[in-house]
Amino acid sequence: MELTINGKKRQVDAAPDTPLLWVIREELGLTGTKYGCGAAQCGACTVLADGRPIRSCVMPVSSVANQAITTIEAIEAIEAIEAIEEDPVGRRVVEAWVEHQVPQCGYCQSGQVLTATALLKRNARPGEAEIAAAMVNLCRCGTYNAIADAMQQLAKG
Q1: Which of 73, 117, 129, 155 has the highest count of CB atoms within 10 angstroms of its CB?
Q2: What is the mean pLDDT of residues 94-105?
């Protein structure tokens, strides 16, 4: 099966019902996307499929075969960002995360950053309610206030 991951076509040899997370991590070696709960509850496994945040731990790889998948590795590599998007929203999210000292242990952060990126691409100026509704990934370190502060800054431009 062919997948488009971070702007590149990749051939994968996986059963159609294999969760996308395991294809990304085990077959493609992209380990920035984390396993958290395995039940689509925590958001550590969040990636973007055609710009929408999805929980890759429960998403069968066959259901995203025709979609553009973006992982945290694309956000981290400026060349990949420029290849995927004209406005590197993800880079701005990472910069705001650093400025507001959001990451503590960092385990949930790839999912948090991708969720924030998807929201800001959909609406560059979301209000507090929209931010709260979108940013539902769990953070074991409890950095929710720092996440909200970073998102408020990003929403103001």
Answers
A1: 117
A2: 94
